[in-house]
Each structure stands twice: as structure tokens, then as C-alpha cells.
């Protein structure tokens, strides 16, 4: 494991690199006189290309910041993956500049390949960080896959479809890339809340969750995510927290036939930690986990 101080420096380094990448891209926008109509058209076309890449890089930064905020230390191998991630992202300005002049099929396909590699590397980073907080690695792998697997697969399919479309309509295909980061931006918080909620559960609860059907897992994660959001919004208010739990228990019983007592056992550690916090003791969400290098 690397120290908290080194993790902070890694955070700062990555933030700086991503800021530089975005700065380089915006400096590549054509700065020509607008006396000619063609120059105006070229400028706004270049802005459109820049917008796609900006959303791409900004979304990675947001996911990175959200992920790293959940841990104080990270395994050393994450540093290598982070360097690979930054290397791939550093290629984005060159591809953006290339397409600002003329969007061609080959450049859009290469852009998609870089996009795909970035997603793969970032998911490896995410999975490693999530797994380090679990005692049972195999169980956590299944939980992680159940939450993120579907969205990851959808992103891969979208990239593949756009790359195929780029063969025939490269300009339209490139613009469609913007849908991936926008979609991810709106789903990441829900996914993170759902994962946090499942992590709060006792081992028996997690095992019962994994035995649910896919549809039941989706419903249960939605309820857990709503409960986690309401619990956070309570900000120590006992009445609001109690109402959030009661709503969660009622919904779980009516939609999934989960007994409130069973649900209480699943989230016993979470409730105990929250109650301790409300009584004045420090509180950090999540059950104690072993940390492995």
C-alpha cells in the first residue's frame, strides 16, 4: 500500500495532468478572423470536436475523484494503472487536433479505440480499489459485476457501434461519442450509492443478495441507493434517518418480500455505526474491512 500522503500527491498529479490536457485542447481551437464565413464555420465545428473530448476527459476526472474519495490508501499497482490511464488520455489532444481539421473515418475509429482502452483501464482501477475494502474478494467481485457490469457492457457496445458507424458517417459518429460520458456522469452517483449500500450489509445479506434474480437485484439496489441518499441527507437528524429506514423496510417487504427483521440483520453494523455517530462519536460509512497490498 502507498501512504495517504503519496496518494494525495498522486491525486494532485493526475488533476494537474488532466487540467493540462484540457488546456492544450482549447488552445488548439482555430483563432482566425471571422471576416470570412468559412472561418466561423470551422471555428464552431472545432468547438464541437473539443466539446466531445472535454466531456470525455472531464468525466474521467469526476469518476476518478469520486473513486479516490472512498479510500485513504491504495495498492501500489494502482499507481502503474494510473500512469497508463494518463498516458492514454494524453493522446486525446492530438486526436482532437487531427479531427478539428477534418473528421475522417480512421481518426474516429482510433479515437474509439483509445476511448475503449481508457474505460478498460479505469475499470481495472475501480475494481481493484473496491476489492481492497472487502474480506471476501470473490464475493465482492460478484457484487461489483452485478452493479457495474451492465453499464460497462453497454458502454463497450456503444463504442463498437460508433466505430462501425464511423466507417460510413465519421462526423456523425464522432459527435455520438459525447453520449457516453454524459450517460456515465448521470449513472455513476447511483452506482456508487448502490455499491456503498451493498458494502454496508453483513456477509449473510450480501450472500442473499447474490442469490437474487437479476430483476430482484436491480430493484433491491434501487431501494438501497434511495436509502443511502436519504440517510446522507439526514445529516444526523434521528427522525429523518428513522423515516428513511422505515420507508426502505416497507418498500423491501412489499416489492421483494424481504422481512424487516431480516433486513435489520443485514444492515445491523450500518445502523449501529450511524447511531453511534448521532450520539457524538466519529462516524465513517462502511463496515471495517481488511486492507491488503
Record keyword descriptors for this entry.
single chain; 293 residues; 0% strand; membrane; 13 helices; transport; disordered C terminus; transmembrane helix; potassium; elongated; mainly alpha; 2 domains
Describe it for me?
It is a multi-pass membrane protein. It catalyses: K(+)(in) = K(+)(out). The chain crosses the membrane at residues 12-31, 43-62, 78-99, 105-125, 156-180. It comes from Lacticaseibacillus paracasei subsp. paracasei Lpp14. The protein folds into 2 domains: 4-188; 201-278, no CATH class. It is 80% helix and 0% strand. The chain contains 13 helices and no strands. Helix 2 (37-68) runs antiparallel to helix 4 (92-101), helix 6 packs antiparallel against helix 7 and helix 9 crosses helix 12. The chain is elongated, with a radius of gyration of 22 Å. The relative contact order is 0.09.
List the helices and strands and how they pair.
Layout: H1 4-27, H2 37-68, H3 76-89, H4 92-101, H5 105-131, H6 137-168, H7 170-176, H8 179-200, H9 203-210, H10 214-234, H11 238-256, H12 260-266, H13 268-278
Helix pairs in contact: 1-2, 1-3, 1-4, 2-4, 2-5, 2-8, 3-5, 4-5, 5-6, 6-7, 6-8, 8-10, 9-12, 10-11
